[in-house]
Amino acid sequence: MDDSPRRNVKDLLAEAKDTSELMVDLAYAAVFFNDEDLADEVDRLEELMQGYIHDLNWISMLAARSPEDAEAMAGVLAIARAIESIGDAAADIARVVTVKLGIPPMLRADLRHADEIVGRVKVREESECVGRSLRDLTLPTETGMWVIAIRRGIEWETDPGPDSVVSASDVLLYQGPEEGVNLIREKAGAPPLPSPPDEEPLALSELDRAVDLLVEMKNSAEVAVGLAYSSLLIREPALAAEVAALEARSDTLLDELESWVLRAAPEARNPDELRGLLRLGYASEMVFDAAREMTRAIEHGDELHPVVQAALEASDEVAVETVVEAGSGAEGQTLKELSLETEAGMLALAIQRGRRWIHRPRPRFKLEAGDRVIAIGPEDGVPGLEALTSAPVDTPAN
Q: Are 93 and 278 in contact (CB under 8 A)?
C-alpha cells in the first residue's frame, strides 16, 4: 500500500473520531439547554460522519491489494464502525430534543454536577478574548474548559479550531470541570455565577433514582470512550479490560434504569419525559458497546494497523500516560489541589495503583508515588502534566 491511501485513511479516521466526540458533546448540550438548533447541528454532523465512513470504506477496498492488506484494513474498518456507532448514539440523544420527547427538569439540574459540565457564555466587548484566536487564549490550560462550539448571530461554528478568532457578542459553548466555569466567564468579561444556595436533602423518588442512574451512565460512557482510545494509542490490554468491565456494568445500569422509569410512571407529570429518559439510556448503552468494539483487537493481542495510531495522534485530543514519581509535586496531593484540568488542561481518565484501576477519580483522590495516570487533553498540556508528576532534577553545585 502506498503512502497516499495510508495518509487519506489516517486523516479520515482522525476526522471521524473528532466528529463523533463533538456530536456527543453537542447532543448532551442540546438536551441540557433544550436547544433545537444544537440538535440540528448534531444531525448535520451525522451527515458529515456518513461521508467519512463511506470514503473510508472506498479507500480501504482500493488499498487492499493482498490478503495481508485486507486483514489489516479489516481492523481499521472495525474501529471506523465503532466510531460511527458513537455518532449514531449522539444523533439519538439529540432527537430527544427534536422530537420533543421531553426531559425531567431535575435531569438538567443533575447534569450540572456531572463529571464534566456544559455551559455557555456571551463574550463582552471589553473582554480579553475579543480579536484573539483560541490558540492564543489557551483556554484548556488556563481554565480547564474546551470551546466546543461558537454561535455568532444565528450561525454556529461547531468545530472551532486553534485559528478560530473570538469576536464581541459571540456565544461560547464550553465543556469542562465545574471549577473552571467562573474562570472562563472572567476571560469572556462576564460576571461570575453565584454559588448555589445550600439545600436540604430530600427523600429520593423513583424518578430521582432514574435520573441519577442516567447521569452515571453518561459519565461512565464518556470514560469508556476515553479509555478505549487510550488503549488503542498506547496498546494497553489492561485498559481494554477496564472498558470491558464498564460495558458489562452498563448492562446492569440500563436494567436498573428501565425498572426505575417504570416505577416512576405514577408520579410523572408528563409520560413523554419517561420516554426521553429511556431513549437517553439506550443511546448511552450504544456508546458503551462501541467503546468495547474498539478494544477487541487489543483484548485479543492483534497488531493494529499503523494508520490507527497515526489517526489518534492527529486528533484534537491526545492521550498520555505518566507515573507519579517520588518527590514530585503531585505526590501526596489530591487532584483538586493539583487542579490538573485548570493548570494543565488535562483530564485524568483513570489511575492505576498496583493492580487496581480507579475510573474518573474524584477531586479528593490523593496521588501516591508509583501511581500510573492516564489522561487526555490538548497536546500543549502534556508538558505541564509531566512536570507535576516528575521528581525535581538536582542541579550540580558550582
A: no
Paired strand residues for 171: 122, 151
**209-257 pLDDT, tens digit each:** 888 888 888 888 888 998 998 888 888 888 899 999 999 999 999 999 8
For the segment 88-115, the average pLDDT, to the nearest whole number, is 78
User: Using one digit for the tens of pLDDT, what is the confidence trace for 158-200?
Assistant: 778 888 999 999 999 888 877 888 999 999 999 988 775 555 4
Residues 12 and 230: their CA atoms lie apart, in Å, by: 19
Residue whose C-alpha is closest to residue 42's, from 13, 63, 21, 69: 21
The three grid cell numbers given for residue 138, joined into one nine-digit string: 489557551
**Which residues partner with 175 through β-bridges?**
118, 146
Specify the 3-state DSSP secondary structure of 130: coil
Domains located in the chain, CATH noted: 3-110+204-310 (1.20.58.220), 124-187 (3.30.70.1450), 317-389 (3.30.70.1450)
Task: Say what the pTM is.
Answer: 0.77
The more confident residue out of 287 and 267 is 287
Residues 301-324 as b or e (16 or more Cβ within 10 Å = b): eeebbebbebbbebbebbbbebeb
Instruction: Give the integer Cα–Cα distance in Å for 343 and 331.
Output: 16
Can you say how many angstroms the Cα of residue 44 is from the centroid of all Cα atoms in its chain? 20
Axis-axis angle for helices 271-294, 206-234 (nearest 10): 20
